[in-house]
Amino acid sequence: MNKVGITETVLRDAQQSLIATRMERKEFEDILETMDNAGYHSIECWGGATFDSCLRYLDEDPWERLRFIRKKCKKTKLQMLLRGQNILGYHHYSDTTVRAFVRDSIKNGIDIIRIFDALNDFTNIKVAVETCIEAGGHAQGTICYTTSPIHTLEAFVELGKELEAMGCHSICVKDMAGIMSPQVAYDLITELKKNVNIPIVLHTHCTTGLAQMTYVKAVEAGVDVIDTAISALSGGTSQPSTESTVYALEEMGYATGVDFKLLKKINDHFTPVKEKFIADGKLNPKVLGTNIDALSYQIPGGMLSNLIAQLTAQNALERLDEVLAETPNVRKDLGYPPLVTPMSQMVGVQAVMNVLFGRYNYISKEVKAYLRGEYGKAPGEINEELREKALNGQKPIQGRYADTIKNEMTKAVERLGAYARDEESVLSYVLFPQITEEYFEKAEEAKMLKVTYTIREAE
Ligand code: CO
Q1: I need a labelling partner for 194 at 20 to 30 A (CA). Which of 152, 177, 264, 397 fits?
Q2: Residue 256 Cα to ligand 1 middle (Å)
Q3: Which pLDDT tens digit goes with each residue over 258-296?
């Protein structure tokens, strides 16, 4: 019988897509053991925005959260999402920091690291992949899926071969915008299976309403693992529901290894959690619907709402059509970057400025850095005239930008002083200096309050 593994995303992508990663540990801690027994291929529970959100909004130490999940989930593989050389931030870090972060993620409980670069420039994931393999982790290389004249089936297959040659244990095709159609999935997975020998994972979102159909065709083409979310937090900008997917696949004769009865229990747990997020406004029912804008405009849904917000702020919403027409031009000038963070923001802001102030009369700081090479190599040709104008005599970076970055950790240890208890806390500080310091201060205060209470009680 053919097998299809299921990765449950409720603790990472599902909650990141629907409720801006605001789920506290107390909202899932009691269901972890049941999740561990459900038979998932893996549980995606860390990385992406979870790290930032723990420190910034939830007063939780992300490392502590990971160790806790590991303690409760002894059997199932724990998975995280890593932004390659960006780690979990928005710019590149030194190799020393990337290596330390990968090692510590594995040490604290991660089994599978899904590693991606927004430009599919694999020199930006190489160090993370190597370190993951050395540390005994499962390195999952990632292809960011997008549509453009240069993103052909053949080009994606070449990327897959590169990932296999790098030593990756599996490949994830990541459709962050939910725009992959069932037929493309079928053709792409078929070709990848023909050309590489490591397992293929497909990741998509329900945003445009294609995902369930796309998964069925991907499974027919031989995909090994797909990502789903327990039904309470599925659909809309999240993943297809775990239960429906398992139900359909089992009926089609595929073994998922997942215990359907336990899924019911897991969903019963998350249903009131979802209700609470709707009640307090953190889950806007709008994101649960189907929105085909991404298909019409070939830009992700999140990017479209950003464009609308920017134009509204400039009192120029009536120029939206012009901006939507300018977006593909900007993307072409920048060498067709996939529209994923941070490229989607960069392209969107530049398109707005081009429409409002004239083409490239104002070039954003980020686009200048991109044209200098601080984000890696563009997938296609960059408009050289634009690059010259943006760099204004400055030299573009030769080779890897990360090679020019000094190790951030030494300075962080000094700055943190007594709070630099272990390498993990130093890494938190390197990634998010201000919020980490605030978090440590608050935690310290809470500890002191506890001491004062004990003293009072003794009186
Ligand atoms: Co995603």
Answers
A1: 177
A2: 21
A3: 999 999 999 999 999 999 999 999 998 888 999 888 888
